[in-house]
UniProtKB/TrEMBL annotation, chain A:
The keyword ATP-binding applies. Pfam families: ABC_tran, BCA_ABC_TP_C. Keywords: ATP-binding, Nucleotide-binding, Transport. GO terms for molecular function: ATP binding; ATP hydrolysis activity. The keyword Lipid biosynthesis does not apply. SMART domains: AAA. GO terms for cellular component: plasma membrane. It comes from the Bacteria. Residues 19-260 form the ABC transporter domain. This is ABC transporter ATP-binding protein.
Automatic annotation (TrEMBL), chain B:
The chain crosses the membrane at residues 20-38, 45-73, 93-112, 119-141, 168-187, 217-242, 254-276, 283-305. It comes from the Bacteria. Its main location: membrane. It is found in: Cell membrane. Keywords: Cell membrane, Membrane, Transmembrane, Transmembrane helix. InterPro entries: ABC_transp_permease, LivM-like. The keyword tRNA processing does not apply. This is Branched-chain amino acid ABC transporter permease. It is a multi-pass membrane protein. Pfam families: BPD_transp_2 (PF02653).
Amino acid sequence: MTNNPAAAPADAGAPRAVLSARGLTKRFGPFTAVNNVDLDVCHGRIHALIGPNGAGKSTVFNLLTKFLKPTEGRIVLDGTDITAMDPASVARMGMVRSFQISATFGDMTLLDNVRVALQRPNNMSRQFWRSLISLDRLNRQAMELLDRVGLADMAQLRANNLSYGRKRALEIATTLALEPRVLLLDEPLAGMGQEDVEHMAKLIKTVSRDCALVMVEHNLKVVGDIGDDITVLQRGEILARGDYATVSADPRVREAYMGSEDDSH
Amino acid sequence: MSAKHADTIVMPTRKSPVPALTFAALILVLAILPAFFYPIFVMKLLCFVLFAAAFNLLLGYTGLLSFGHAAFFGGAAYVTAHALKVWQVTPEFAILAGVAAAIVLGLIIGAVAIRRQGIYFAMITLAMAQMFYFFCLQAPFTNGEDGIQGFSRGHLFGIIDLNETMNLYYFIAAVTVLSLVLIWRIVNSPFGQILRAIRENEPRTISLGYSVQRFKLAAFVMSAGLTGLAGALKALLFQFATLADVAWQMSGEVILMTLIGGIGTLAGPVVGAGILIGMQNFLATSGLPVTMVLGGTFMVCVLLFRRGVVGEILNLLERRRG
């Protein structure tokens, strides 16, 4: 990645980073969970964050999305320093995350789940005096989003009644409602059956064309299939980075994954 | 993208006739209730119905358990009583003053408490309500243990004499019904959807770009204001504002009512207040130990009907339907 901004626009082969982190460090008391991590996420690419358990992937993820405050380091989104911002503000700037445990509004219908995401950009979140019928004008958009993830015919079901894989799909639909510029997915495939995994991987690939996408993932096969840039973390530090071929050929990475590689396939 | 496919499925939210019918039935019941019950009792019941409904707005629809609502209830009662007795304003202004006081208190307590969640939130509200209790105990205008009493209810808008029991009854009934309609509207509004989302999954709501603290504070203040309205009506009804209205037991009572009736349902607080006030009234003359019977009832409810009376009924209906 070039550090000279003047050279970047001319160089079409190296897209500019939408989201950059420099020297990201997080300490919990004496324990350093993340140490001096640099990261660049580019538009239209999938950036996978992998590493053995306890490598600090989720901490990096929470730092990027502002759910945790970094002890040191800087995070820049589209040229704006967001290091000191709160999570809701960065979400409004177009950086949206998902959660490891699928995050839906369980007691609400699928349609309502997606409409909640649409309400804010449409300035329809504060009216306490208006009827729910006023939200019907979001239905078309909401249904298109549900259709995109294959849930349109379940719009009136409650999210609680969905299977795990479908909950994750609903979560993606809700996230896409915000038209994110940066999308961060925390283990989007965890706990899914094989069929759902393939479906979701395809969906993630499609979605990544319109945004910069970061995902934490254990499923190395999928990471190899759809990941463009891969960063391997170990004990809070970057062990290796590059495309899948480079990373998987790295002897240090192979060593770090010894024993756990079999589980991941 | 198959927008055509999506089009065929979009169904507009149907306007359900159920709420309108429910409110019509409620008005009908309120019209005939005084023929069977002592109107003062029904009015007391209505004050607590409103109190519990306002509390449920926070607990049931936003997922915030406040243990300090007595401060808003009793605070508004004191201010209303003081306004009637000392300032000698008409009752509508006295009530407005009470509600305004509750809103200010709600802003202060809410702004501090919403920074924490769960049990810590409850503890902060309790602690601040207790501070307010001791303020009321010491402040000269509350008359300490004696409370504020011995004032006339005055004439509503300077015309309608509220010292006439039935005038007062229709006034309190109208205010209660309108407030319940307002709460129903808040819950079923675009704003209410966001509150529900916060209750269901707060981190997710934040990640969608909502400043949930503001929504929580707004809900807290709305709940405090409506609780204040209930307290103001109670002070007007009994011509009496006392330390019992700001004591923590009052906060506990409204939690009981809401839980017994069913949190997160609109009818729950109405039923819960009815059960609790009805039992208190009945037990007061029965010679039975009131607190033990109430405690026993609460335990039975928690063990058998975890959704509360109304919640269990609704759940039963839903299961039968599908």
